[in-house]
Amino acid sequence: MVLSSRASADGAPPASHADARSGRRTVWRWLGEAVARRHRAVLAVWLVLLAASALMAPGLLQRAVAPAVRVNGSPSVTGASLLEHGFAGLGTEQMLLVFASATLSSDDETYQRALQAGVRAVSAQPQVGGVQLLPPVRGQDRRRAYAIVGLNGDQAARQAALPPLRDAAQRAVRQASGSLVDAHIVSETAMLAEAKHADLADLRRAELVAVPVALLALLIGLGAAGAALVVLATALTVMVTALGVLAAASLLGTETDTFMLAVAATVGMGLGLDYALLILLRYRRARGMGHERVHAAGVATSTAGRTAGWCALAVALTAAALLVVRMSMIRTMAAAVGIAAVVAATAALTLLPAALVAADRWLARGRLRRPRPRRAAGRRRRVHPGRPERDGDGAGGWSRWARHLMRHPIAYTLACVGVLAVAAAPAAGLRLGFDLDRASIARTDLGRGLAYMEADGVSSALAVVLPHAVGAPPVDTGALVAALGADPQVALAAPLDNGRDLTVILVVGRTPIDDPAITALARRLTDHDAPALLPPGQRVLVTGPNAIFSELVEESTAQLGTVIALVLGCSLVFLLVTFRSVLLPIKAVVMNLLAVTAAFGLLTLATRHFPQIVGHQVNTLIPLLAFTLVFGLSIDYEMFLIHRIAEHYQVSGDNTDAVVHGLRHTARPITVAAAVMVTTFGALLTAHRHELAQLGLAIATAITLDATVIRLALVPALMRILGARNWWLPGGLARLLPAPRGGPGAVPREAAAVPDPSDVT
Question: What pLDDT is stored for residue 55 in this prediction?
Fold first, then answer.
């Protein structure tokens, strides 16, 4: 019996032997064919979703808040709550109101009139609990004065109250002084508000860069404008729809922040490009083999579409590990990644098959190169039933590379490990911290106020909250206040008591808010000074911006190990079930760790040599975010490659030939997909915010290393060395694991029995 790689005489596609015997199709193929037959209805539904998402996007941008940086349930949050109830005048958050003049001294009559007008205007704002002027400190410029403003409410309420509060203060001060005195507000809320505006601006800029560059990469990789536009349109639809889901959630009362929007948009576009590209190549190959449109969509969905669905699940699972971190900002990012992955998989399995069938005759339009000559009808290649087609010597550059690699696996393994080790070495000097990124806020109201504060040594503020029994006398703070007054890092320490149940020490520090020294001061107050200098058993809670950022650093550092363990564990179990092998999951996890470590090594070098782009130190949140995202995205490429190798091996039983086959047929989609993914995340390097640039550089670098050094050389070389041991699975595990039905480890009938020639452009 002979199978032809071309269509039969009556135009029907070549049937697989298993299908011919059973007459059954996989669920995945059935889905692809059902969508293809009803492609007009499917496209209409997606068009409605796209239009609705686009209409809701402006409202989403208005409702989005700045990322919340407080650690849920932390001492600073508890202390802020006690302050709000015990000292209404100090509020949930203590803001600094900065008065500054270029010509007038603070004891000038006009200056004093402006200062009093500003205090009255701020005090009249509905969410302000009180305003308290601070006495001058040693070294303070006489042209400046400061006041503490207590602002009440949750984060969203405080962010909404900030613009009218700032406008009222500036208007009153300028009118009273004839514009000789100005007012600025410096606070946690003001910092987050600037972060919100910067995030949105950076996101728009990154997308303007990413879209045309991604289109260029697709044009080069696919060789046809029609195919490139279909892939790009699918990715943009995924991005807009993911934002539409967030918009709908925000309308239902779910709080969304700007960092969540940036992650959903970037990951949604990247995954949309990845999955659409993979499925389009399989569809185009099936069409080149003679399948008509509907059947080609079914073949593509049952192979590449199924892999995309499982890849999306892997991305969502790795992101879910971030839920252990007690920070709303990190948890919302995990939700954003999960939403983007689900939307991308849904679009890959429904929108793309419908679009491919509808645009079939346009896919080859705008060719950049000549199509390959087809095999003459009289020269059909004979393929034995049940035996996959072997790659010949003339199969092209990737086949030659694969066979060369198979002849020298040990040399390439050592070379690749050496390259990754050299790239990872600088990671030993990685410096983590919190950086206000002053360059990005220098020209803002916040930046000017902060510059005045740091010049005067009034750089940061803490509140030491000391609850006591109702009716008891104030806590004896004399010794602690004296010790703080003698501390060169402290500009002012003032005790207060509400006469009921709460004593507070207001501490103004000379050290900048993002300096590790002020973080150490907050920790020393809690762990050493307060227990030693206050009455025994006194409860101590330190709050304020410094304490909040200190807890952010501590929580992200403490939970990094937990997140890594969860991601590694989930990845191992997922890949074990997926590929029904013990060594393949272990190898995949080790390879991903190498890629992530090498990426952070290169990021460390960037902080030393290009601080103007990525800053002087790595933001403490970047390892958490980059690790989970890189692991999820790297599993995509692992599954693309290993799934194709497994398809061939499970039929032929020849490990070396299967590795050559898998590398030959996935090298192109992996490199093109990686190129557009690198483009998507690399566009974040245009961001003004250093943490966004750091995230973009880390992920883009890791994907580049993963798709080149690891997937195209190291993994195939290791699989050649391991041989049949790649597929080892103990009998006990084999009985426990589900049978490979419909999962990516299963061999679809159309993949196992239909010849699979090289890609047809």
Answer: 93
